[in-house]
């Protein structure tokens, strides 16, 4: 289920948190997992998340290319439960949301 109606931080923050749930990842790996995101937006979002204390940015030990890993900080990990509750809510109410959106769109074709 990709629907995620509640925004935490920026548009991509929750998706980045989920990508980092299993452990640290490099920028390129995050970008591949979040295909529609541009490199610029990913970099800006990661910087904002680092500023908020949600992620840590660390050099990759022994990497010749100066690679950087991003990992969830303890504060970022606290979002995992919030995100799961929001996803459960979306699953439980998806049909209702879809009907409401279809009704609105039919009544407001210019929107």
UniProtKB/TrEMBL annotation:
Any one Gene Ontology MF annotation carried by this entry is:
DNA binding
InterPro entries, per the entry: HTH_HxlR (IPR002577), WH-like_DNA-bd_sf (IPR036388), WH_DNA-bd_sf (IPR036390)
UniProt xrefs under Pfam families: HxlR
HTH hxlR-type domain sequence ranges: 1-98
The UniProt entry, under Gene3D superfamilies, shows: Winged helix-like DNA-binding domain superfamily/Winged helix DNA-binding domain
Q: What are the entry keywords?
A: DNA-binding, Transcription, Transcription regulation
Give the matching PROSITE patterns: HTH_HXLR
Instruction: Tell me if Flavoprotein is a UniProt keyword of this record.
Output: no
PANTHER family in the cross-refs: HTH-TYPE TRANSCRIPTIONAL REGULATOR YODB, TRANSCRIPTIONAL REGULATOR, MARR FAMILY
Q: What is this protein called?
A: DNA-binding transcriptional regulator, HxlR family
Q: Which organism is it from?
A: Amycolatopsis xylanica
């Amino acid at each position: 289920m990709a629907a995620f109606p509640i925004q935490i931080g920026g548009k991509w923050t929750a998706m980045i948190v989920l990508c980092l749930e299993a452990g640290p990842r490099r920028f390129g790996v995050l970008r591949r997992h979040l295909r529609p995101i541009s490199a610029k937006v990913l970099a800006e979002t990661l910087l904002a998340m680092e500023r908020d204390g949600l992620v840590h940015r660390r050099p990759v030990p022994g990497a010749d290319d100066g690679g950087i890993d991003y990992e969830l900080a303890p504060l970022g990990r606290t979002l995992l439960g919030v995100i799961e509750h929001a996803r459960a809510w979306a699953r439980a109410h998806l049909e209702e949301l879809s009907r409401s959106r279809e009704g609105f769109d039919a009544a407001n074709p210019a929107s």
